[in-house]
Design goal:
Blueprint lengths: L15 H14 L15 H5 L3 H16 L5 H15 L2 H14 L3 H8 L9 H15 L5 H35 L8
Helix pairs in contact: 3-8, 4-5, 4-7, 4-8, 5-6, 7-8
């Protein structure tokens, strides 16, 4: 890990509001995996973002906005997240969202397949289409017109928009994790 974890007792005044907001979010949404160390230090991408509070706050707002977007089931959102994490081989993201995906209803086999960079054959139609769009976006370039039309028809405009922004959000998360060599579990 290329940044030092900040135990809660060492959180400074410029970090406090962000630390509190991240801690609240983690305790509300991410109880299936370890995201806070025994000393209160934030793990995962939160440990990095806490080091740069102004940027961390902007990222926190982005995460909240993307999570509030309508149009995609929890399962499909986790499929998109795992597709993105697998693309970047982001260890902590795959570790964390494998647990969240299981809570959302994905099977162990589906999670393993997605984590390996493949699309499981037994996903529902919404999740399959979301995974296809995410995979194509991660290849780079313009999304092909026929896939765009099929995605908007199949997911609705809100669902399509949410796929795009979940991919963008988890590209940011994955790059943060990989740049700072954040491990899948507490160092």
């Amino acid at each position: 890990m290329r940044v030092s974890l900040v135990p809660e007792v060492e959180v400074n005044s410029s970090q406090r509001a962000l630390y509190d907001a991240f801690t609240e979010r983690i305790e509300k949404n991410y109880t299936a995996f370890k995201a806070i160390g025994a000393d209160g230090a934030l793990l995962g991408p939160w440990s990095v973002w806490l080091q740069v509070p102004r940027t961390g706050e902007a990222i926190r707002q982005l995460i909240e906005a993307v999570d509030a977007m309508p149009g995609l089931s929890k399962v499909a959102a986790q499929v998109v997240t795992l597709v993105t994490g697998a693309h970047f081989n982001a260890a902590y993201e795959i570790y964390a969202h494998a647990a969240v995906a299981a809570q959302a209803g994905l099977s162990e086999d589906q999670i393993a397949t997605l984590s390996a960079g493949e699309i499981p054959a037994d996903l529902d139609a919404e999740s399959t289409l979301a995974a296809q769009v995410a995979g194509k976006l991660l290849e780079g370039g313009v999304l092909p017109g026929p896939l765009f039309k099929h995605a908007v028809d199949g997911l609705g405009r809100d669902g399509f928009n949410r796929v795009v922004f979940v991919v963008a959000q988890y590209c940011l998360v994955s790059m943060t994790l990989n740049a700072f060599d954040v491990p899948a579990e507490e160092p």
